[in-house]
Amino acid sequence: MYSPTPQLCTTKIFGPAYTVQMVDAADTTSPKPSQHFVDGVQKDAVVFISQPEGFYSACWGGLMTTRAKYLGARGVVVDGNVRDLGEHREMGFPVRLCPFPCSSKCRKRKFTDDVVHKQVFAKGTSALGSNTFTRASGLNVPVQFTSETQKRPLTINPGDLILADQDGVVVVPVEHAEKCLKICEERFEIDEKTMEALENGEPMGETLARLRK
Amino acid sequence: MYSPTPQLCTTKIFGPAYTVQMVDAADTTSPKPSQHFVDGVQKDAVVFISQPEGFYSACWGGLMTTRAKYLGARGVVVDGNVRDLGEHREMGFPVRLCPFPCSSKCRKRKFTDDVVHKQVFAKGTSALGSNTFTRASGLNVPVQFTSETQKRPLTINPGDLILADQDGVVVVPVEHAEKCLKICEERFEIDEKTMEALENGEPMGETLARLRK
Amino acid sequence: MYSPTPQLCTTKIFGPAYTVQMVDAADTTSPKPSQHFVDGVQKDAVVFISQPEGFYSACWGGLMTTRAKYLGARGVVVDGNVRDLGEHREMGFPVRLCPFPCSSKCRKRKFTDDVVHKQVFAKGTSALGSNTFTRASGLNVPVQFTSETQKRPLTINPGDLILADQDGVVVVPVEHAEKCLKICEERFEIDEKTMEALENGEPMGETLARLRK
């Protein structure tokens, strides 16, 4: 999944998931939410929209982002299509383009204000709105991420922590968050030392054997 | 394979379709046009090339654009692959990059000269030319757009109005053009009011119920 | 469909292939190399990594590029996924963004220093590292490139010449290099004349008939 601006930007989004399950608009048996799905966005949430496969239409656009932004969303991840790319850029929501090339050291970046920036991540774009194609069904329910190459089934639960940058989207279940943070900090430190060794010409094999014990 | 980067530009192309049906170069039974397909491009047309599925080669490149530009084409849409990306940029044809970020309001944009700009839209790129892979067959004939996720079959007829921007490509049959324009103008106005309401914190559900009656 | 705006850079990579065959990490029967695969990179080589299909993980990242850069690699082509995009940019390795628009004539470009620039080309990105997903097996062995639309099977042999730019990746077997260069020079000259004729308004059909005899 990619941000509707290239992968030029080194900014990230991070926050707990507010999940939305879309279904075929022709599906009359699935539940219907009591409110418009975007009105349920909580402050500081990352909206995660699951669009059923096989739809050519977009299920997120400029009006939705306007409302989500007002409600304080930190970002949006659409497992499906988005539209109104120009409008998003002008809204300052999905795309803060970095100076090229970025001069600060990536590995040393913390979650300061200039790195965390509101953005939309999506699989694709479409000029078609959702009307007559899809509609929201479940709000804050577990949703599945599927892809041809993602072999292990992946469930996104409401409240799961979502972290997304130009490399992709990562979902961390809340119960693993503390352990995950600890591992990341340890690995971050090892990676820093590895990078330094490699810059000094040490071979990869020996460096990994020494530092990743 | 491509290096990561995407849709930066808020410019559009718009015009009546000049359609070209490509076929397998090995196909000896399909019609052969009496002229080179690019010599048939009319002034102000948007060239729409339909490349058969399953080909890794490009069916449009820098020489073709040079000729189409000379004949006054407003743009090119390739349901297939394009090559010579650098050459296209240098020709000022496919890519007019906008200042980042764009400062003018998107929804207020009209089709002024700084918004409509000659560009090529394509599904993908290839370093291979069309020779030995595909050849032109029908000129200004109905062509089909197909994609795994486009469920409804879509025919592009010569003269259909093509509008393309960073969200995607839209085809409007001439007989629906006037009605479509009217609906768009109405919807544009509703969207403007909706956006204003959302910016003022009105919920999406109530706003849509009030304005999209 | 998207505009060829994406690939913004007109720089190229060029060099002999150092090939790496990745296999499923669970595969215990395939050979294991005696050294870390990135330590085998030769000076001036283009690293070509073949990741088996169906993996969601990345098999190349910032640490690998740091080592390959130290060893003097000219570029990397990954038939699979890459991560650490920000880090790569900061390292000055994969992405040297050109001024927009590029002003020099593309067709007249030679392989001067400002055109050849170290870069990574990949099919996709992933936030996941290779651990538990894939591992290196053969080093400097013939590898296969596969894609749904690439109908003719393509083998990349160690030492094959790799040339990659924004249009795609081309592989030239060493035994054909001289003949290929000769054909390219001839064709380059014909294309220059064709371009000039087209810019002067000569029809494509007649121009090709006259110049490509």
Tell me about this structure.
The structure is a homotrimer of 213-residue chains. In chain A, helix 3 crosses helix 4. The longest helix of chain A is centred in the last third of the chain and has 23 residues. With 213 residues, chain A is α/β, with parallel strands linked by helices. Chains in contact: A-B, A-C, B-C. Chains B and C meet through helix 1, strand 3, helix 2 and strand 4 of B and strand 4, strand 9, helix 3 and helix 4 of C.
Q: Quick one: biggest sheet of chain A?
A: 7 strands, mixed
Enumerate how many helices of chain A there are, as a single number: 4
SSE ordering of chain A: EEHEHEEEEEEHH
Q: Note the quaternary state here.
A: homotrimer
Averaged pLDDT of chain A: 83
| Portion in strands of chain A | 25-35%
Number of strands of chain A: 9
Low-pLDDT regions of chain A: 1-8, 95-111
Largest interface: B-C, 54 and 51 residues
Instruction: Estimate the helix proportion of chain A, in percent.
Output: 10-25%
Gross geometry of chain A: elongated
- Radius of gyration of chain A from CA coordinates: 19 Å
The helix/strand class of chain A is alpha/beta
Q: What's the N-to-C terminus distance of chain A?
A: 33 Å
